[in-house]
Amino acid sequence: MICINKNRERTMKMNSVLWAASLSLAGAGMAQAETVRIPINEWTGQHISAHITGTLLEKAGHDVEYVTAGAVPQFAAIANGDLHLQPEVWTNNVGDIYPKAVESGDITVVGQLGLQPQEGWIYPPYMAEKCPGLPDYQALYDCAQAFAAADTFPKGRLITYPADWGTRSKDVVAMIDMPFEPVAGGSEGAMIAELKSATATQDPILMMFWQPHWLFADMEMEWVAWDPADGECVEEEGQERGKACGFQQASIDKIINAEFAEANPSVAAVFEQISIDNEVQNALMLEIDQKGRDLEEVVAEWIDANEETWGPWVEAGRAAQ
């Protein structure tokens, strides 16, 4: 759920058409593959993960090619070996195609990338003074008026995702009977502009948002906390006050073609070690999406400044050669 700072769910659906990349395999088997082919999906965060991965594989002595591919169609290409590995798979946006590909044995889940994806309601820290009890969501029942606007009073105003991104926040508000009026944001850009305007004057604001996102490298925000889920949070049913888990959270997997990993242990060893957290990705996205810097330049700058972090990852690959 996007350039990672665009709506992931919407863009993935839009890009679920056949991936438009022409791959020339020239009859070469995977065991003889000299070039690691990494898919490039539809959002900035994935571009960062892919290029960090590719750069470190190059440092371990491997050739790398980046191939534009849709976030859903890529699984068939990875399963059959046309593409080799993907460092950033958002498991909540790919339907049942991904688990079926994993179950087939053609794709190996190497582990988690290290990102901690989060979706939910955010608010600026000064709102905690106006609504004692935050971040607990139950505080919002007692201080809805602190978040009210002229067109929602006495209900609080909740800015949700744009209408064509779905109705998740609206559905949760209705299920748990929270005294808030969901108001759809016009776009990601409009939502961010409203958030910045409100914080500049310390006006009330509560907004559905997600991370990783460059916003969190630029502004201080807090998250509304929900009741623990009994297992995985189910958004569509069963939530009520006192038993509200809020929103299902994704995991972010690293995957590799199983046969390719077996034939290329050095690549697999580097890939297994790679880890990227929210702080890193948020900061790099800020440079690219807000400051207009070149992706390759920003990634190279991070690589140059963090050899102590990635050096052991590359050494693991060299040792496996």
Give a nutshell description of this structure.
With 321 residues, the protein is an alpha/beta fold. The chain has helices spanning 8-14, 44-59, 74-80, 97-103, 127-130, 139-142, 168-175, 188-201, 215-218, 258-263, 265-273, 278-290, 295-305, 307-319; strands at residues 35-40, 63-68, 85-90, 107-112, 118-123, 156-160, 180-184, 207-211, 222-223, 252-257. It has two domains: 8-16 and 34-115 and 252-319, D-Maltodextrin-Binding Protein, domain 2, CATH 3.40.190.10; 118-223, 3-Layer(aba) Sandwich (D-Maltodextrin-Binding Protein, domain 2).
Blueprint of the fold:
Layout: H1 8-14, E1 35-40, H2 44-59, E2 63-68, H3 74-80, E3 85-90, H4 97-103, E4 107-112, E5 118-123, H5 127-130, H6 139-142, E6 156-160, H7 168-175, E7 180-184, H8 188-201, E8 207-211, H9 215-218, E9 222-223, E10 252-257, H10 258-263, H11 265-273, H12 278-290, H13 295-305, H14 307-319
Parallel strand pairs: 1-2, 6-7
Antiparallel strand pairs: 3-10, 4-10, 5-8, 5-9
Helix pairs in contact: 2-12, 2-13, 11-14
Could you walk me through the main structural features you see in this protein, from its secondary elements to its overall organization?
The protein has 321 residues and is α/β, with parallel strands linked by helices. Helix content is 38%, strand content 17%. It has a 3-stranded antiparallel β-sheet, sandwiched between helices. The two termini are 37 Å apart.
